[in-house]
Amino acid sequence: MPSTPDQQITSHAADAGRVERAQGGRDAGASGASSRDVVGASSAPHGATAPWSERRETATQIRRFLVIGFSSVAVDLGSYAGFVHWAGMPTMPAKGISYVLGMIVGFIGNKLWTFRSSRKNAAEPITYVILYAITLGVNIGVNEGLLRLGAMIFPDATSTTNLGKALSAFAALAATGVTTILNFLGMRFVTFRAGIADRRASSSTPSRSSP
């Protein structure tokens, strides 16, 4: 029995409704999957990406620390030469003043550029001076220990022989390397630790927009 026009219209409307429901179900499924992806990404542990940023920051700090270190040595040697050769100052006070000037340059450069600490307190300069006093003793101890070890292994290597000069240079370089590493670690984890934590906390806090 042929269908009437009303029945045909009703059939077309039902088909359209089924198509819309099916399309809506697919859209809802896609939306749910997208939401799950976003939630999964946002709930991913920070440890998956933090080590990479930590390594980048540490690498930058090491490069800047070395630049500031060379600058401090340049200030130390340059001012010492100026005090002795141009100002006629005795070597002992000239070296003491030049060393202090190099320490000041190192403190300011490492605080503001290497580790970017904005804290204003007495703890940072005090721990900085204590750190350099300790590593100065370590430098002297490592240098002297290596010189004595070299003298035991090579008894004929005096300060006038080429081997003795090479051992002396090696001892000085090794002592400088050890103290350089200790100075970096001391500033990173002691002197400027609180300033680094403050900077990271302020950078991770979202800024509030004004109403």
Count up the helices: 6
Report how far apart the termini are.
70 Å
Which class do the helix and strand fractions yield?
A: mainly alpha
Which series of helices and strands comes N to C?
A: HHHHHH
The fraction of residues in strands falls at under 5%
Q: What do the pLDDT scores average to?
A: 80
- Low-pLDDT parts are 5-10, 28-50
Percent helix range: over 70%
Radius of gyration: 34 Å
Q: What's the main sheet like?
A: none
Please state the overall shape, judged from the principal axes of the Cα atoms. Answer: globular
Number of strands: 0
Could you state the oligomeric state of the chains shown?
A: single chain
Task: Please give a structural write-up.
By secondary structure, the protein is mainly α. Among the domains are: 57-114; 119-200, no CATH class. Helices cover 82% and strands 0% of the residues. It contains 6 helices and no strands. It has helices at residues 5-42, 50-86, 91-114, 123-153, 162-191, 193-204. The relative contact order is 0.07.
Which descriptors would you attach to this protein?
single chain, 211 residues, mainly alpha, globular
Please sum up the structure shown:
The protein is an all-alpha fold and 211 residues long. Among the domains are: 58 residues; 82 residues, no CATH class. Helix content is 82%, strand content 0%.
SSE topology sketch:
Blueprint: H1 5-42, H2 50-86, H3 91-114, H4 123-153, H5 162-191, H6 193-204
